[in-house]
Amino acid sequence: MSADAQAAPTGLTPLNPEVQRCPYDWYAAMHASGEGAFDAGPLGYVIAGHAELSQVTFDTGGFSSEFYGPEGPQLAGVSPEPWSTEVQEFWATIPKLKNALFSCDPPTQTRQKAIANKSMNIARVRKMEPTIRAEANTLVDSFIEDGRCNFYTAYAEPLPVIMIATMLGMDGDRELFKKWSDDIADGYLAPMDNTRRMEVLRSAKAFIEDLMPRIEARRANPTDDLLSALVNSTIDEEDEQKFGEMAGPRHLTDGELLCAVSQLLPAGNHTTTNLIGNLLIELIERPEVMADLRANPELIPAAIDESLRKDSPLRATYRVCTKDAEVSGTKIPAGALVPMMWGGAGHDPEVFENPQEFDIHRPNVKKHLAFGYGPHVCVGMPLARAVSRIAFEVLLERVDNIRYAAGFTPTRAAQFPFSAYEGLEIEFDKRT
C-alpha cells in the first residue's frame, strides 16, 4: 500500500453524477485497489472498507463528528464553494444550532443519545406497531381502488413522516414536515451551490420558528413524547465545562435541542422513505422474490437488511480528522474531511460475496453498516425497521402484481450522500 492517500479511481468521485446515481463501480474500484482511503478532492478522504470503518468509528478523538467545527452545524451543505452575500445575510437571521447527537462526540453525545433512546427504544416502538399498521392501511385505502399511484407521495413518504412526527409529538402539516426534513438532511450532508443553500436555509428557519414554541410548551407542560424527553431530561457534565457553567446536571440548551430535533425528524423519515422505495424497486424487478415475501412475510426483515446493504439510503456521514492519521497504511492529514462510506462497506467483497447481487438469503446480511456502527449507530433504527417492515407487510397483504406503470422507467437520483430514485409510478391489482 502507498504511504499517502490515493486519488479516487479516474472519473469515479462522489461529485460525478453517474457515481451519485449508482456508486457500485466506484465501490468496486476502491475495494479492488486495496487502499485504506481515497483523496476525493473537495469532499476530503473517503473511507469505504468494512474493517476500516468499523475501526475508525470508535476513534472519536482522532476522527471527530464535529465536522462543522465547535460552532455547530450551519445547515448549508458541505461544499467548499464560498457563501454568497445573500446566504451570509440570511444565515445571520437564523438561531444557531449547537453540536448534538451525530454532530458531537462522546461523552456528551453518549448522554444525549441516552435521552433519545428512552423514547425510541425497541419496547417503545413495539407499542407503536398497531398505530403504524393502522396508518399504513389508511394510506393504502386512499389509493387501492385506483389501481395505480405515485408510490412515494402516496405511501413511502407519508408513512415514515407520520410516525416520527407522532413519536416527537409534533402535530401539524406533514407535507411541510417532509419538505423541511428533506431540505435539512441536505443541509447537513449534501454538496450544494448557493441557490440550493438559500432553499435549505429558508426551510431551516421555518422549521426552527415552528419548533421553538413547541420547546417552550414542553418546558411549561411536559408530555409523554420524545420532544418532551429531550427538553426536560438532564445530562451530567461532570467532566466538561463547555457552556461557561459549573459542571453538573443540566438541561440541553436551545441550540442543542434545535440541533437534535433537526436531526431526528429527517433521520426518522427521509432515509426510511428511500429504503421503502429502493426495496420495492428491487422486488418489482425480481417478481419471484416479491412472491416469496408475500407467501412468507417472515422474510421481509431479511429483504430490508439486504436492501440496506446493497443500497444504503444514507451512503455516508462525515468525520473530521483531528490529527495526522493512518488508516490501513494510508495517511490522512489533520483537518481533512472524511466521508464515512457506510454504503461502500456493504459492497466490501471481503465481507459480502458478489456484493452487487440482491440476495435475501445472504447468510451474513446483518453485518451491513447502513445504520452506522459504534457510538453513532442510528438512534432511529428500531423505528425505521418497524415502519419499513410493516409498510411491506400491509402492502403485500393488500395488493398483488405490483409493477411499473405503463411508460415508467425508474431513474436514480444524482445526489450525494443519499441513495434514492427520482420517482416511482406503479400499477397493481387489488387482492381479494
UniProtKB/TrEMBL annotation:
Signal peptide: none annotated. InterPro entries: Cyt_P450, Cyt_P450_B, Cyt_P450_CS, Cyt_P450_sf. The keyword Transmembrane does not apply. PROSITE patterns: CYTOCHROME_P450. Keywords: Heme, Iron, Metal-binding, Monooxygenase, Oxidoreductase. SUPFAM superfamilies: Cytochrome P450 (SSF48264). Transmembrane segments: none annotated. Belongs to the cytochrome P450 family. This is Cytochrome P450. It comes from Sporichthya brevicatena.
